[in-house]
Amino acid sequence: MLTKSTAEAVLAEALTTGGDFAEIFMEDTVYGTISMIDGNVDKAANSRDHGAGIRIYQGLNAVYVHTNDTSLEGLLACARKGAAAIGDEVMSRQVQLTRSIPTNIHMIKQLPGDVSGQRKVRKLLDAYRTAKAYDTAISQVVTSLREVDQSVVIANSDGLFTNDRRVYTRLGVQAIASGNGENQTGFIGPGAMMGFELFDTRVDPAACGTIAAETAVKMLRAPVCPAGVMPVVIDSGFGGVIFHEACGHSLEATAVARGNSEFAGKLGQKIAADCVTAIDDGTMPNEWGSLNIDDEGTPTTRLTLIENGVLKNYMIDRLNGRRMNMPVTGSARRQSYAYAPTSRMRNTFIAPGNDDPAEIIATMGDGLYAAKMGGGSVNPSTGEFNFAVMEGYLVKDGKISTPVRGATLVGKGSEIIMKIDRVSRDMKMGQGMCGSVSGSIPTNVGQPMIRVSSLTVGGR
After folding, report:
1. Which among 455, 454, 458, 432 has a CA at the least distance from the CA of 445?
2. 3-state helix vs strand vs coil in the chain, percent to 5
3. pTM of the prediction?
């Protein structure tokens, strides 16, 4: 896709006006999407992204240009545009590259392009049928299959020349329950850095259909959640979206390097309860947020962010590492060649603790059990968040009682992680797409069941 000699010539051209570092990121990505509404194929499409981005540094100044003309002439022209934005000094530069082959820890058994459309549609039908059959209140079922096959080549003026291939597969099931003029939605979206073997080893579409429908029906028939300040138990898996949004983004150098984070300058300080250890791990085989190398060509790492309540690390990319005078952590990511990379999360989770899930609820008194989390919003500079609870239950005297709908969790990241007083042993992860300045990327969020001693619950 990109030869060593071409990369050397383009990088040398990018440095001719005084830049001290240059990088090429080239990709060729094939996307496949099939979606169904009520058992009928609504969309079946393939698309392709092909292009390259060139980044040039001069100290802390950075320029990023990109093109889909990946011929030698097209790349040289792109490099000249970037170089012109850096300065007007003319000098001759030489770049010598050494090929590096990353260790592949994500084995793929069935590439998306090798599987027939009929087999894919059958998986979606399995999910549709169980969801539709769950209850007469289910008015609509939307199922989807999303596949990505991305090949990248990365080269830089420090001599790096490497490549990687990333394959992702994800199922989506949305069930809508209707009654009394109202609609409620249940959703599940499991995925992995895997091919079609995802359905042989990890994901049962029929079971996913049941789970989505069950949530929708329960919430349709549930009363509205009462508002107030109370203890809240957040279940394992996608419940980790709160840590991801309210705290994780504030630990990315994207925010920290410019002082736009509530955790800036707090390395070595206590920022969470003693029972909280949080990790961002890009090395977990075949996980949704994993990589062999990041989008700057750095091998990914297992990074302890918080250990027993103490802030240990930030997630750092190359440019922000310069600003902070700190080493990179293999955390640079981007949606495609059209975006410059920056520090992003990978598989981010609160580590398992020692508490028993049943005991966590039995000792909480009256409160809310958030069994499944939905979407929300956060201000990274302050950590203030607002998240919807997709499936919630009131807890009375330590016993789960009435399902409730319409609950929201409102708070501040730095406060909520200080109020976590129980962490169970049953860590799970959920899949999502995370958006930031470098685009939308696949990330895992996760946690065991946790308990927050006091949290504002919005309702009625």
Report:
1. 432
2. 20, 45, 35
3. 0.95
